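Support request from a user on the community tier.

User writes: "When I paste my structure tokens into the form, the page sometimes reloads and wipes my input. The last time it worked, I copied everything first. Here is what I submitted, just in case something in the input itself triggers the reload:"
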């Protein structure tokens, strides 16, 4: 508990120092940056990072083979990792194009009740269908 309190106090001191240097409005804008990424954004990040790393790996190996220099190959591959990190780590705005619509508790309960009613209706319909098909087969 003491460690957490000390960490909190140090954080507040750092916040005060940042406010005095940059101004309170600027610091509040920085601390209020939206950090979430939606599911489609996660898929896009995965594909972009994978393609960038693969492309730089192929280019690095080809250039290193042509120049007969393994160091150049490694440096080109590392450059690809740095570029992929710049693309993938920050939550860029284009990773948040498809936000999730969360249901409120009341809406969720209504949806659950509708689903239960629909399930019961389908079960009754199935029972009715099976009982009527049984009667038809008996009549024949």
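"...and here is what came back when it finally went through:"
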């Amino acid at each position: 508990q003491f460690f957490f309190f000390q960490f909190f106090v140090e954080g507040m001191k750092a916040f005060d120092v940042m406010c005095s240097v940059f101004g309170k409005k600027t610091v509040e804008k920085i601390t209020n940056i939206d950090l979430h990424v939606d599911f489609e954004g996660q898929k896009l990040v995965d594909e972009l990072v994978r393609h960038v790393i693969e492309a730089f790996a192929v280019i690095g190996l080809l250039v290193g083979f042509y120049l007969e220099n393994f160091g150049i190959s490694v440096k080109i591959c590392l450059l690809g990792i740095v570029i992929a990190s710049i693309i993938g780590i920050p939550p860029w705005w284009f990773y948040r194009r498809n936000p999730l619509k969360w249901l409120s508790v009341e809406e969720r309960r209504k949806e659950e009740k509708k689903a239960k009613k629909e399930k019961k209706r389908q079960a009754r319909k199935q029972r009715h269908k099976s009982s009527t098909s049984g009667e038809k087969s008996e009549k024949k």
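Agent notes: The reload is a front-end session timeout and is unrelated to the input. The CA atoms of residues 106 and 112 lie 10 Å apart. DSSP finds five helices and no strands in the chain. Escalated to web team.
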